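Lecture 7 notes: from sequence to structure.

We start with a single chain of 121 residues. Read the sequence below before looking at the structure.
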Amino acid sequence: MLPGLKSETVRVGPALVCSFTGDLILDSEPQAEQALNAALDQHPGLLVVDLAGVELFTSTGLNLLLTTRRRAAAEGVPLVLLAPPQQTLRVLEITDTAKLFTLYADVGDALRHHPPTTPRG
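Now the structure, written as tokens:
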């Protein structure tokens, strides 16, 4: 049996931080998609996707991030990635998509260097 995926979304000022722990793969994609869409539905000033706890990251996870990035951009919500592990970074680099995302080591850095927009809603 696969370990699965855990998600948690918390508000940090005007930002929402959506954290994932476990495997971001085909079997866990519906849960991850639901968490990210629920966060975007709140029209945060900044959406931070925390990948620090992701152990396995496949093309399914990449496609989900790209889809979420498109929706966030269309809604005027800045999206950044937080602490992606080396194997996740490697997937982003191999697919030449790393340049599409802004990466930060921690939430404080993300908030300091990427000020949230005024939330809509």
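DSSP finds four helices and five strands in the chain. Keep this in mind for problem set 3.
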